[in-house]
Amino acid sequence: MPRLDDKLWRDVMAYLRRHHAPICRQWFDELEPIALKSGLLRIRTTNSIQQNYLQKRCLEPFTEAAQSVTNALIAVRFDFGEDAKSEVDQEVTGMGLGGKSETNGALREGEEPAGERNGRAVPEALEIDLNDPVEPPTLSVRGDSRRLGEDGQPFDLQDDVVLNPDYTFGNFIVGPNNQMAYAASVAVANQPGDAYNPLFIHGGVGLGKTHLLQAICQTILTNKPDTRIVYVSCEAFMTQFIECVQRGQMLDFRHRYRYADMLVIDDIHFLANRERSQEEFFHTFNELYQARKQLVLSSDAAPSEIPHLEERLLSRFQWGLVTNVTKPHFETRVAILRAKAALRGLEIPDDVIAYLAGKIDSHARELEGAITSLMAYASLGNCDREINLALAAEALGEQINQPRSNHTTLQQIIDVITGYFSVKLSDLQSRRRHKSITEPRQLAMFLARKHTRFSLEEIGGHFGGRDHTTVMHSIKMVEERSGRDETFLKQLNLLEDRLQQSSGLGS
Ligand code: ADP
Ligand code: MG
User: Which ligand is nearest to the CA of 168?
Assistant: First the structure.
């Protein structure tokens, strides 16, 4: 078994930078290898948010790096706090290690069962759906991570949201477009339940709502680590509600939500038209509010603009502070680009930053996408290239110069897809993974990417708050299948024809 020394660690880091540049962050420098014993490389993180994030999001590349560098079947684990101190020797078998990401932990022999480590409760491993492999999970409760239902039985919590260590207040660039939302978020983080309750942040996709919501959570957890925060996407709230109704587990559901110290719901606009979920949320809201527990909500529209929102909910949303985020100005875009580059330890010359900020005038998510493509281009073909204007133009060219019709709108694509497959938009936006829904959803994403100027993130956002990688996956699936399945290709051509007709009519 290889020995853990400085060189080995440096090599692991270098491997990650070379092969997995997009995940690398400046704060990885703070990680510290603790031990390499019995095939397990243990790495200490500086806080539990990093630990959770790395364990859930980055285990696979770290495992790959450790295995490549040592040429041995090594597993990786991120530890923090008590775990990081304990020197318990844990036997690891090689079976299945290396490349199964989040399920790795479940495959280790000699380890305590999932859910328990060193006698302490830890969240369950997540299930991975291969059809939708990169769907972000949706729920997190910190503090006592193993909650009991009313009947004393553990309540299964599968969808652990992973707070992103990047989404802190320190990494948030304040500009005229988000000043108020930022100040209100900081106030709420410092005085939950007292400052503004509820805090309602609205604005278009990619403008920093989720970033602010997570920054609030991170600040509170740093100040008071045992705070029970329920952070959930609206969609997960509704799905869990429906499942609990069907399984007769409403007591558990209510227990989970109403005993929280703080409830954060991202993208609450999905409550539009959902009567029963609105009703349940109304009661949850009331109980928490009366107990002076903080509520934080985000939405793509102001409360009054969310369609078919019950009057009583609308008025409650307005009890606290309603504030919005808008598109960043040039100076703010420059600052965001600098911050995103710094997080990645990337040096980008000023003229390139200005070029990118000038070209991309939409939202911060696009800016981040530009930095990611720049990184990819800079290390293309295994040799580092200088980051300069030419490279930036090349990297952006991919985003900007793709032949796309000016006439097609997302609505036309949705109309064609929903008409052809007899599905509803809400199905496409839902978490449902039945083939009858995933196929039209993938086709819709593919067509949206091909015929509109929306970014992967925006498309993902529109189809149910999905990650850009999910959109990429969908595009790949459609491309692959149309290359080998003639019937599928005919269907795709038919959809394209219909789209062309409707675009022609619309222009
Ligand atoms: P939303 O939830 O509004 O769709 P996100 O919070 O997911 O948007 O933001 C998209 C990306 O843009 C994230 O990487 C986020 O960190 C970044 N971002 C948005 N606004 C800012 C900002 N003001 N400063 C730094 N990063 C930002
Ligand atoms: Mg968001």
Answer: 1
CA of 144 to the centre of ligand 2 (A): 26
- The number of the ligand nearest the C-alpha atom of 465 reads 2
pLDDT in tens, the chain (507 residues): 788 889 999 999 999 988 888 899 999 999 999 999 999 999 999 999 999 999 999 999 999 999 999 999 999 999 998 777 755 444 333 333 333 333 333 333 333 333 333 333 333 222 223 333 333 333 333 333 334 333 333 333 334 568 999 999 999 999 999 999 999 999 999 999 998 999 999 998 889 999 999 999 999 999 999 999 999 989 889 989 999 999 999 999 999 898 899 999 999 999 888 889 999 999 999 999 999 999 999 999 999 998 888 999 999 999 999 999 999 999 999 999 999 999 998 899 999 999 999 988 877 888 988 898 888 788 765 567 889 898 898 888 755 444 444 568 888 899 999 999 999 988 899 888 888 999 999 999 999 988 887 888 888 888 988 888 889 889 888 988 887 788 888 888 889 888 888 776 543
**Pocket around ligand 1 at a 6 A CB cut-off:** 167, 171-173, 178, 203, 205-211, 336, 339, 364-365, 368
Counting ligands in written order, which one lies closest to the CA of residue 207?
Answer: 1
Contact 220, 376 (CB under 8 A): no
pTM for the model stands at 0.70
Q: What share of the chain is helix, strand, coil (3-state, %, to 5)?
A: 55, 10, 35
Residue 194: burial class (beta carbons within 10 Å; 0-12, 13-18, 19+): exposed
Please identify every residue whose CB atom is under 5 Å from ligand 2, which is an ion: 209-210
Give the residue whose CA is nearest to atom 19 of ligand 1. 208
Question: Judging by DSSP bridges, how do beta strands 139-141 and 120-121 pair with one another?
Answer: unpaired
What is the whole-number distance in angstroms between the Cα of residue 234 and the centre of ligand 2? 11
d(CA 208, CA 327): 10
